Amino acid sequence: MIQTIIIYGMIWTFLYSLITIGFSLIFGVADVVNLTHGMVIMAASYVVFLLVSNIQLNLAISMLSGIIAAVLLLTIIYLVFIRRMLKAPHTSMLLLTIGIAMMLQQVIILAAGTQTRYVPSIISGSRPIWGVVLSNQQILSVVVAFALVLLLGSFLKWGRQGRAIRAVSQDREIAAASGVSPNVVFILTVVISGTLAGIAGVLVSPIEVVTPEAGWGFMVTAFSVTVLAGLGGPIWGIVVSAAIVSYAELLTAFFIAPMLKEAAAFTILILTLMFKPSGLFGKKRI
Amino acid sequence: MMRKKNLGLVCLTICVIAIILDSVSIAETTPPIKLGVISAWDFAGGQGVKRGATMAIDDVNAAGGVLGRKIQAFVYDNKGNTDEAKRVTERLLYNDKVDAIVGFWRSELAIACQPLIMEAKKIVFLTGASAPILTKERIKQDYNRYKYTFCTIGSSDRFAKLFSLPIIVARDKLGLSKIAFLAEKTAFLVPTVEYVNKEFKDMIVYFTEFSPTASDFSMELTKAKAAGANNLFALSSGPAGTPLVKQWYDMQLPMLHTGYSVQAQDANFWKTTEGKCEAVITAHVGAGAGLPITKKSRPWYEKYKTIYGEYPISLMDPVAYDAVWAWVEGVRLAGTTESDAVVRALESKQFKYVGVSAVLEGFDDIHAPYGGGWKPGEAWGFCLIQWLNGKREVIHPENVKTANITIPDRLKKVMGK
Question: Quick check: B9 pLDDT over 80?
């Protein structure tokens, strides 16, 4: 039983990290609380579902289309709406992005209905890992998520553009004075965030179910993990925070009641805001 | 002579034409009877209500209507949401001014909307919403207010025994006597949960409840395995039934998956689960599985496929079909659509309706009938189906089974059988 909790905790740690990093990046770099992030993840899942089930398109092409759609969607949201309000107070940004998220949800409902949808697995079969049987789809999802987290961590630490992103995140004005264009960095961050959201959507959808409401669930996860990790911290800080949230959920489901699982993320969110507003690894107060 | 004869023939023809034209004009000018159909279209059960009810309305109209009037359908989606259900119900009552309403799939929504319909003194034929509070409790408490409520599938406390059939069959046929009992937390399942927990107390090694929208069962299934269960008995009416089956398969648990799952009744379930539902057993209304419950069942089943291109997707399709016809029979017997008269007709001993899913012989004082027509003791022709090789096979009762209950080799291996 302990192995199962440990293994499943690891799976959700990396999937939650993937779901969160994009949201946290935009929050840290552009100071934008982008509440459309969960819906962008869902949009990617729905694109895959619609292409596979309605047009019978190849699964790989459908998934690639889902990722591209997520990048385009987030870029459009940024260019058309968010960019114009970068200097607006946080409350305005929150209201704006909640509004867009709700609009996206309605578009998804119009296109695919409110019915629960299912995306087929990329690979079938299952195998035991440390005595716990996992589907190959779960293993693939966690391996890809782990690789992406590593890749992004390396990019932010050693890549030229990555260093620029970190510089803008730490101090926008000094970075601009050093020749880094914040606007270019914002766009780059949006593209990275959209890519990660798209990949999260196509990796999580075969494991989970696809519903228009699921976007809000992803948003709660991303928000809780970001608040716990804090802003401006290292990527591994997000991974550690994702681990805390995922294990808290699993332990709640296991020892208290499965129906209280989601409450664990909210509890962490509330406790962090009350007692450690800068998060575990953050450099500024949220 | 010949001339006279021709003149008589012409007069007769004119008279016949006049009578026909007159009756046509009466039919054209007679206003239709308005019937509201309400359900959550994006759920298998709700879609089943919509399909079954509209199919019945078309059949009634094709047969000439009722009391010389056609039925005009007002079909709305309540989106499985209480606020939307109330809004749509009020629209049916006060905007469309319907004579009666058929539908509702989730008891929670019907519980919220029933007072609105009763206030308007309109008849409601509930289809899937079957929590006892809707019929026997509220009608008994305040007959004059709630007497307009009829539930064609009966009160859900009567399903408890039927829904627990998989436990008995798996125990008697396969010797599986350790149950992990997972139940969706919904109003209509409350009596079944209480019944199973009481009647099979000694067999239950693990019990928990889950949300109708749950999508991760890893911890519940881990605990079920640790408790040594060999029969995963799950009750679900919502979408959670699908991820539960997929995870049960992926985790290669040493237990058969049985129970009651609206999702598993769907003819498309094999495709949805990518074949992971192999060996899953669920209780089902026999007519929805193609069984000849009455003489009307099989023709209806094949006609359904002609219309919708697939076999019935849930137990709701035949039940909603029968709900419309039962109301029509009540109207016919009463000779009017006036609610009080129709209630009296439905309650009378003269009322008898042979449906596709059951035979209804008079609605009793609680308006939740015990549908017969299968064999004594088995209301609504309930049966057990098992998914085998991509097909829904009937494994119980014995006299109509299409296959024997089976544990596939994959499962035998993990169960150590």
Answer: no
